[in-house]
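In response to the reviewer comment on reproducibility (Comment 2.3), we provide here a single inverse folding case reported in full, input and output, so that an independent group could reproduce the run without further information from us. The structure tokens appear first.
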């Protein structure tokens, strides 16, 4: 393929000789044509030049003639009017003036083309003539029946142009004669030089012919050079790490390098001359390959050729199939025959390594998630004992009067609070890393939010003797679409950071709002302080996690170094940009810039003012009641501490160590308030709250108490029927506020499930009217009676099985009973039976289970409701 054939060498020599012969013929013809056209151009140039000069000369001379004709027409009109007193005949005057006017306009064009800007004197005269003709045209056009005085005045104006017309004509003729002579001399000179140039060109062409003849003697040298280039190209291909295969249009291998031998196992003598499909293509793909190659040669249609890198499966000499990266380019040989150049790389090992790397990255990601979860769990578990510690301090403070002991209690509370802040920051960091569901559709008042954060910081500002100044250039009714939690978290940490590293100084909060569109606005909020500042070397580290005072500030400042890490994540979640400027001893300036959708508000209504104040109203006899609270928490310390707080708040309380116990207690008692933990064994807080809402007696508010806090959790507790979330550790004042705003619900204890008004909160349909509507009154009552007898029997069998210790059989019976309850429409009863089935499966059910009695009560109420509806 790479060796030059005799045919190629002969073809090259013939082409070279043919090129020399063609050059000789073309040179001869060119010289003859140049000589012929030179004579033609010379004669034509003289003729045209002469004609042009005569025409221009006549035009210039005629200008003065037309001027004299105008004078003559005016004189005749004047004489006629003086002799017989008749009116002036304007037609000869206007005709003579129009001719003069037109002639001067033509002369203007001639002047611009001939004299141009070289003859300033003629140009000045022509400008005066042009101005006067326009003025005369205005006078002439204004005449209707001119008087003798009008004609005399007009003629006087025309006579004033006599010298200018004559001088302009003379000046232009002199210029024309000079330019014409110079042009003719120059033209002849150009042609003379052109002739000399042609002779020189002819000599160069002859020299080129001589050089071309010399090329014949160097043809062999060129052939040697081409051979060397070909040999070099062959060596490059042979040493390539990729397989290189050349084939003709029929797919027959023409060239095959060493890398191809290593990849496919064929020796060159085995591969060259063999069809590619028999060497490299797997058996199930050969037919498709042959069809595609034939289609490409015939029609140019292609799916692989000239399409860049492709990944496909190939096979080697021993039948092993593997993945290759292939690039096929089409080309033509010296004689125009189609050929294909294929570059092939075995990427099976790369794919294997990529998979291993992907698995390693996935494992690393999972390890990171495990670490974050571990961090969250540990932090959560640390909050539980802190609940006891801080609650103990709150309780002791109410009982101890000694100032020394109170000082120790305050010291312990401050230490616990610092530990709690650090745990909160750790949990916050984990949440920002994991939670991707932060909505940006909340209406946020940036001015009020910042002012609120400043107000909350007031005690700490006073402690460090700092002052805060809040400035904003934005309308008071500014509202943006963002996330209130992210906004508050970002600036709470920035403000706390500024106060932490500033003492007896000034802190400034500056808000600048710039509209960027009708519905978008750009906020830049800058927080500056006069604190210790940050060195330039440490600026790039301050937003990293756990960047503490050890490597940024002096050791006089405490903290985990998570505050600015939280700031960075909040900014990223909102799509903003952070910037910091600082210098040691000069303070710091942190800027946040972000664009938000602007929310327009109704100026009439104040969104901050609630439109409806529904405070619970206690009757006179309720004032003497003590609110009853159920504490559901698997941690005994938490239960005891919250119980002591409730006792101080004069509330009756009860305990449940898990969700199952809570459901049992709520099936027998109504509580004004239920404090529900989330993470509990056997039955978590979410499922417990739903079960209480569905199958137990009417209850008061269910409030979630947990160390976790996220938007997703808030949504989940709402869906579970809980009213709000209080983060652990619970402080006495927080619990007091909750108890004070909790209404009494104990008066609803005797209410049945079927006259409660919150059926919309229950999954499924419980209304007995649906059963009556489907089957009619008589059949519905019959079904209800049969269901009543059957379920009472089944519940008796369940107790027998539980007494015998056979909880698996009890679960099977409960499963069938739950299905029957669902079919007849007793959804609350079905839910409770399913819960009991789960307890039996977990072997947490015994024959004394109080919820079995609750099932009988629900059954009685359902049957009674069927009969009540049938009587209506």
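Designed residues, in position order:
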């Amino acid at each position: 393929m790479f060796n030059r054939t005799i045919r190629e060498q002969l073809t090259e020599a013939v082409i070279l000789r043919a090129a020399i012969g063609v050059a000789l013929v073309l040179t001869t013809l060119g010289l003859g044509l140049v000589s012929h056209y030179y004579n033609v151009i010379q004669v034509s140039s003289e003729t045209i030049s002469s004609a042009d000069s005569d025409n221009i000369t006549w035009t210039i001379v005629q200008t003065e003639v037309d001027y004299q004709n105008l004078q003559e027409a005016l004189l005749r009109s004047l004489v006629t009017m003086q002799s017989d007193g008749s009116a002036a005949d304007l037609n000869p005057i206007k005709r003579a003036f129009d001719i003069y006017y037109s002639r001067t306009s033509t002369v203007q064009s001639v002047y611009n083309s001939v004299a141009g800007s070289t003859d300033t004197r003629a140009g000045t005269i022509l400008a005066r003539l042009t101005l006067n003709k326009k003025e005369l045209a205005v006078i002439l056009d204004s005449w209707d029946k001119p008087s003798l005085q009008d004609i005399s005045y007009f003629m006087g104006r025309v006579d004033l142009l006599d010298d200018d017309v004559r001088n302009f004509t003379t000046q232009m003729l002199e210029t024309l004669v000079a330019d014409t002579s110079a042009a003719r001399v120059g033209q002849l000179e150009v042609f003379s030089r052109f002739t000399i140039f042609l002779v020189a060109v002819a000599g160069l062409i002859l020299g080129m012919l001589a050089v071309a003849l010399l090329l014949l003697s160097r043809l062999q040298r060129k052939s040697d050079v081409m051979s060397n280039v070909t040999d070099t190209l062959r060596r490059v291909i042979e040493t390539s790490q990729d397989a290189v295969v050349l084939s003709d249009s029929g797919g027959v291998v023409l060239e095959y390098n060493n890398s191809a031998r290593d990849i496919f196992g064929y020796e060159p003598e085995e591969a060259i001359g063999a069809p590619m499909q028999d060497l490299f293509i797997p058996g199930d793909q050969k037919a498709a390959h042959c069809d595609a190659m034939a289609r490409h040669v015939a029609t140019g249609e292609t799916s692989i050729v000239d399409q860049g890198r492709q990944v496909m499966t190939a096979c080697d000499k021993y039948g092993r199939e593997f993945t290759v990266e292939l690039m096929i380019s089409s080309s033509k040989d010296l004689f125009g025959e189609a050929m294909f150049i294929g570059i092939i790389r075995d990427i099976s090992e790369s794919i294997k390594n990529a998979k291993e790397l992907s698995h390693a990255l996935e494992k690393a990601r999972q390890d990171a998630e495990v670490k974050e979860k571990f961090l969250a769990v540990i932090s959560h578990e640390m909050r539980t004992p802190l609940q006891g510690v801080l609650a103990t301090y709150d309780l002791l403070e109410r009982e101890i009067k000694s100032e020394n002991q109170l000082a120790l209690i305050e010291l312990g509370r401050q230490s616990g609070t610092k530990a709690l802040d650090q745990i909160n920051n750790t949990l916050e960091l984990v949440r920002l890393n994991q939670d991707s569901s932060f909505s940006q559709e909340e209406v946020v008042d940036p001015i009020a939010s910042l002012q609120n954060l400043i107000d909350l910081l007031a005690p700490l500002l006073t402690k460090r003797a700092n002052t805060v100044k809040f400035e904003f250039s934005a309308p008071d009714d500014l509202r943006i679409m963002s996330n209130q939690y992210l906004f508050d978290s970002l600036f709470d940490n920035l403000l706390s950071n500024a106060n932490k590293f500033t003492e007896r100084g000034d802190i400034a909060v500056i808000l600048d709002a710039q509209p960027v569109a009708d519905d978008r606005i750009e906020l830049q909020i800058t927080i500056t302080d006069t604190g210790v500042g940050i060195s330039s070397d440490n600026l790039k580290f301050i937003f990293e996690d756990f960047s503490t005072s050890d490597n940024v500030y002096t050791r006089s400042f405490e903290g985990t170094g998570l505050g600015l890490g939280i700031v960075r994540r909040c900014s990223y979640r909102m799509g903003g940009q952070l910037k910091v400027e600082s210098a040691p001893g000069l303070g710091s300036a942190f800027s946040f810039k972000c664009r938000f959708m602007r929310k327009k508000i109704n100026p009439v209504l104040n969104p901050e003012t609630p439109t409806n104040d529904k405070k619970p109203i206690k009757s006179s006899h309720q004032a003497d009641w003590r609110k009853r609270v159920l504490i559901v928490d698997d941690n005994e310390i938490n239960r005891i501490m919250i119980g002591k707080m409730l006792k101080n708040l004069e509330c009756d309380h009860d305990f449940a160590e898990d969700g199952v116990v809570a459901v049992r207690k709520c099936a027998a008692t109504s509580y004004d308030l239920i404090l529900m933990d989330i993470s509990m064994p056997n039955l978590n807080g979410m499922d417990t709250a739903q079960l209480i809402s569905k199958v137990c007696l009417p209850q008061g508010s269910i409030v979630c108490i947990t160390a976790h806090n996220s938007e997703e959790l808030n949504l989940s507790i709402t869906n579970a029927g809980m009213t709000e979330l209080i983060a652990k550790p619970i402080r006495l004042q927080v619990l007091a506020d909750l108890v004070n705003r909790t209404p009494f619900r104990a008066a609803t204890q005797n209410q049945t499930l079927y006259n409660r008004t919150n059926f919309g909160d229950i999954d499924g349909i419980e209304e007995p009217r649906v059963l009556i509507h489907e089957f009619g009154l008589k059949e519905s009552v019959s079904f209800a009676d049969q269901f009543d007898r059957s379920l009472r029997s089944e519940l008796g069998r369940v107790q027998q099985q539980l007494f015998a210790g056979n909880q698996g059989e009890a679960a099977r019976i409960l499963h069938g009973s739950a299905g029957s309850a669902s079919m007849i429409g007793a959804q609350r009863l079905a839910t409770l039976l399913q819960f009991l089935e789960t307890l039996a499966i977990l072997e947490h059910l015994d024959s004394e289970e109080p919820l079995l009695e609750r099932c009988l009560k629900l059954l009685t109420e359902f049957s009674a409701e069927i009969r009540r509806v049938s009587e209506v």
